[in-house]
Amino acid sequence: MYTFSSRIRYSEVDSEGNLSLESLLDYFQDCSTFQSEDLGIGTGYLREKKMAWVLSAWQIVVERYPGLCEKVSVGTIPYGIKNFVGYRNFLMETETGERLAYANTIWTLMDMEKRKPVKAPKEMTDAYGVGERLDMDYEPRKIAIPKGEGTAREPVEIKRHHLDTNHHVNNGQYVRIAMEYLPEGHRIRQMRAEYRKQAVLGDKIYPLIYAEDMVTVVSLNNGDGEAYCVAEFKQNQESRDGN
Question: What is the pLDDT of residue 161?
Answer without folding.
Answer: 87
